[in-house]
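Researcher: Go.
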Amino acid sequence: MAVSRGVGKHGFVREHGLLTPEQAEAGRRTASLVAELDLRTIRMIWVDQHGAARCKFMSAPDYLASLENGIDFSGALLSMDSANNVFTQAFAENGGLDIPELTGFPDMVLVPDPTTFRVLPWADRTGWVLTDAYFSNGKPVPLDARRLLRGQVEAARELGYDYVSGLEVEFYILRRDSDRIELSEGGWPPPPPKVSLIEHGYQYLSETRLAGINHVVQRLRDAFIDMEMPLRSIEDEWGPGQLEITLDPLDGMESADAMILLRSAAKQLAHEMGLHATFMARPGLPNMFSSGWHLHESLRSRETGDNVFTSDDENHSLSLVGRQFVAGLLEHALPMTLFCAPTINAYKRYKPYSFAPDRAVWAEENRGSMIRVQGQPFERGAHIENRVGEPGANPYFYLAANIAAGLDGVRRELTPPPLAGADPYATEAPKLPTSLWEAVEALEKDDFFPGVFGKGFVKFLTMMKRNEVNRFLGEVTDWEMREYFEFF
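Model: Structure:
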């Protein structure tokens, strides 16, 4: 009965062997859950190259059919920047990206990953599931974000390791003053929504300030717990309405999947409360502090289950494998920055003595370094914290780049430079890119990531970001008007 539904391609999933036994079993469980809870809508999510959750709201019967057929989904999204401008050559052979299947803006086929299925507590009888993208011939879409990360998780497994990561994400909650879209100021995209600060801020880790927006915190808390996300903490950050959410460590791709759900939930719940949640790194509003995404990571032995970053040497806070992983991150730090900080705005965050790194250094328990070692010799929870990322980063690209660079250090048995001293900002070390165009240039000159992710993927990403840079540099900014309009 399910296969008679008008979605996807009949028998597509089985024909191409696209669900693992674990996913097939999860699919059967979700089918039972759909019936038990009388779910009416399943939001089928595909994460695009920007890390944005693209979606079709599917009926429950058609979701069940998609477990065998997949669903059709527009491949044109792959050619669009964050403002929906087509940045590739329209209707060029191979889609302008050396991928024959992209000629003519074709549909993709999305196949749900039932292991990611959740029931949304704020939406009436609604499920949520992530998908993977394939062409109609059964080949995986090479630009699919989850595919990129899955490849690196498998690479770690081949070396005998499971990748473990934990999220620490900062963002802002603001009062939404208007939902009106004003186009009179010219063009698309329209101006941002009108917002104002909520009565909360300027005190770091303050109980009373956080309690002042307890209605927001409770909605977020309950949603995450109801969706079985491993919520660790919700904290009060420096800025007015700035929050930090941390999750307990997760395996493999789970942290990236959780980041997509975290951002979606925060934005939707805020909107329901007349608020606006933004993961923009540095909003242009008064007295705002920057928001970052700090990635906590380590490797676990697949043979013993032990944390392989734990040092058994009293002279080192990290094991030899841990130090080699750090060495790989530092060696590839400059071209890796584009995966961790992919927006123009992110680079307004990297300032000396700002708690955001400005150079490729590592240090023990020092928040000014790019890589912060957390742990002591013999500590089972020893791990590292990469402090480069912005909260708007595509989580699959961010994690994949970290794994690839770290594993390169392990394979080549690299030795990291000496630890930075008390002041990482005064350490002699390569400077991180200070703008998106510098980050693009660093990746364009790089040989490592094209070798790991594929030349076509890196060409695609840098082409898209070059387009974003050119659009930005072609705009007259408020700063220019203030600086030059009256003076000259």
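Model: The mean pLDDT is 92.
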